[in-house]
Fold this protein.
Amino acid sequence: MTRILIIGLSTRAIAESAVQGGHPVITLDYFGDRDQRTLVENHALLRDFGLPFSAEALLQASRRLDFEAVVYISNLENHPGVVEELARGRVLLGNAPAVLRRVRDWRALRAFCRRAGIPYPITLLPGEEPDAGPTHCWLHKPVRSGGGHGIRPWEGESLDAAHILQAYVHGLPASAAFVADGKRSVVIGLTEQLIGQDELGAQGFAWCGNILPLTMPVAEMAALLQQVEEMATRLTRHFGLRGVNGIDLVVADGPDGCPRPFLVEINPRYSASMELVERAYGVNVFSLHLEAMAGRLPDFSLADHLQSQGAHVGKGIVYARRTVTLPETENWIEQGRRDIPFPGERIEAGHPVCTILAEGRGRAACWNHLLASAQAVRQEIGDKLTS
């Protein structure tokens, strides 16, 4: 069987999916978490190679590994040149570098959204700052975005080539997961995004988890899903998207007062919310990805799952409020924790400690279980919530 390298910032969730699907994989990421190393052959930039995180460091370390195919995840979509080098002489199981260059280019994406009638926040490029009128709040965002890091309110300064302006849309942050074959797409999940939640230690616009499903009245959800499905199909056909992909959205009222999905960003690779899709709907996302790369899409109806939805499922990222040294973490996986650090590991303030998973009968119950789990983590590591 073909030996597949999964590579990116944090590979644990997709590695779990690959192992459960029976696929032979090795992983290369920054963290090298304890639970991942019980699953697969894992290599970590810092722990094994003494390298800081960067796309170039991942490429450098990959040259010491033996693999025939590669699957990339966050944030390599921002580095198509690195993806090109990774795939040289190997099978690329993901969107091609040419696709990445187009879909992550806001000039090209903005133009297509205008033509296709896809709602998106007003987005301004360098030189267009005079168009940033006072009727909107404006966000200063990195072009190579990821996880909400580096986003802040705009203070009127000129843009450089590495940043854009985007009008803030008041609404519910959400994400859609879909699988595509270059022409067709199937939406497999709609989730609420948790952004900057102080209870989880996140600040600003930092992503810190998801809750599935998106909580909305039935009729509004049906209409929203139809709009998201149309959006995914149009994006797939225009950009030639393949495999599993994600869309960051804000659900806000349109001119008619009905909820509409505003496209904030396309993530042309496996994304974090897909772990919840797998847990809730019993699909294997890694297998879906490989099947789609071969031109085969699943017989899957998200509408049917939403109508028969049981428990809400959620994941949260617990960020350290102060610098801590980890105690013994051997039993953490049994407590619904993932991305588990090794005992004695030092976690700096503002950095992620671990992922927590929870479920509940309804959104509120799921959220409360996430909060209880986060508090338990803080108590164990001596990083208790402060008033």
Summary: The radius of gyration is 20 Å. The chain has a mean pLDDT of 95.
